[in-house]
Amino acid sequence: MAMRLRFAPSPTGYLHVGGARTALFNWLLARAQGGVFILRVEDTDRERSTEAATQAILDGMQWLDLSWDEGPFFQSRGLERHRQEAHRLLERGLAYRDFSTPDEIEADRKALKLGERRPYRTRADALGADLERERLDAGAPFAIRFRVPDGETVWDDLVHGEMRFANADIEDLVVLRADGTPTYNLAVVSDDADMRITHVIRGDDHLSNTPKQILLYDALGYDLPRFGHVPLILGTDGKRLSKRHGATAVGDYRVQGILPETMVNFLALLGWNPGDEQEVMTRDELVQRFSMERVLKKSAVFDPEKLAWLNGQHLARRSAESLLELVRDEADRRGQRALLDGEAHTNLIVLVEMMKVRARTIPELFERMEPLLLDAPTYDPQAVRQHWKHAADARARLLAAAERFQSSAWDAASLEAALRALAEERGEGAAKLIHPLRVALTGQSASAGIFDLLVWLGPERTAARIDRALGQLPDA
Ligand code: GLU
Predict the structure, then answer these.
(1) pLDDT tens, position by position, 6-23
(2) Among 27, 42, 74, which residue has the most ligand 1 atoms within 8 Å of its CB, making it the best to mutate?
(3) How many A from CA of 40 to the centre of ligand 1?
(4) Which of 22, 143, 212, 333 has the fewest CB within 10 Å, making it most exposed?
C-alpha cells in the first residue's frame, strides 16, 4: 500500500521553521517512498485561524517547492463527521455526557490539583440514567468526554522506538465541546482515518497527544497509522527556538535572501543527517537519502551561521542567469533597478559569475556588484585609510599602472603580466600596486580578483576610475 502522509498546520500564524521542517520531512518521505503527500489546514480554531495565515502557509510551501498531491483540505469541512464520531463513541458507551457547570469545572480543577482522579467521570457516573434523561430533556448543555480505558498505551515510534503511557495518567478528554465543536484530538484522528493516513510524522510537542489519539483510533475501530515524532528545534543558546533568536517565519528568510534550496537543505539537517560528512545537498539528493531511521532523538539546533554558510554553497551552485533574476528583485526592493538596466545582459552575467562565489546571500551579491555598476564607486573610508594613506605613493602607483595598462592587451593574463612586470621594475611586491588600484576601481579593500575586474570594466571605465581616484587623493 502506498504511504500516505500529511502536513496539518493550524493557520494561526506564519509558516514557522518548525512547521516547515515537519512539512519537509513528510514531503521527503512521500517522495522517497513513492507515497502521497496531503496538505490539510486545521482551521477548527475559528477564533485564531485567519485567511492571511492560511495564505502565508501556502506561500511558504510553494516557495520551498513542497508540492502536495492532495488538498489543501480544510478541517472545518469535516465538522459533521467529527460530531458523528463523538456521538458514535457515546452510543457505544465509550464516552459519556459531561454536564458540568462552570462552578463544577472550577471545583474539578482544584480537586485535580489535590490528586483526585477524573472527578468529572465520577460525577457523570453518579448521575444515573433518569437524571441524565431529565437534563437532556431540559436541554442542558453537555460536552462529550472519552472514557479512557484502563491499561497501558504502547506504540513503536519511528524515531523514539517503544513508547509507553499508563492510561491512568491520561485524562478523560473532551472530544466534543458543549458548543458542538470537536477538539483537536478527535478531529485529527477522524481526519487521518478518513484520509487513510499511514504515517503521522510531526513534532515532539505532540508526543503526549499520541496515546490519546491511539485510544481514539481503537475506540472508533480504525487501523492505526505509524507515528514518528521529530525532535524539538532549539536556538544556539539551548532554549526553544523563538523570536528572541531572530526570524522564525520561513518567509523572513526569503526576504533576507536565503535561497529556497538552502532552506530545504538546512531544514532537512534539523534533526536528520545522512550519516556521512556531506552537508550540502540538493532537493533530489535529499529525496534519495532521506529516511526516518536517521532522524535523531535529540533536539536540533538552529544555527544562523550555518544557514548563511549553506546559502553561500547553494548560491555558488546556481546558474548566473537564475541569480540575476533574484538580484533584479533585490534591486527592485532597494529602488535601484536602474543600475542593472543600464548594463548589457552579458556583462551582468559575467559580473554575477565573478561575485557569486564570494556572496552568502542575494543582498550581499547585490552589494558586491553595486560598486562596479555605479558610475563611480563610493570610497570606503577604511579602505582609503589603509591603502591610500601615503597619498604620494598611491598616486605614483596608480599613474604607473594606468600607463602600463595602456600598452597591454585587455585580457586577464596580459594585464596580470603587465602589472607584475611593473612591480618588478619598481622593486616592490605586486600587492603594493594591487591594493590602491582595487580601492580606485571598487572603493573597497576586498573584491573579486583584480584582473577579472579590470577585464570586466574595460579600458575606458578603468581609466576613468583611476582618473577619479587621482582626483580624490588628499594632496591633489
Ligand atoms: N494542527 C496541528 C499542529 O499544527 C497538527 C498536529 C498533527 O500533525 O497532528 O500542531
Answers:
(1) 999 999 989 999 999 999
(2) 42
(3) 9
(4) 333
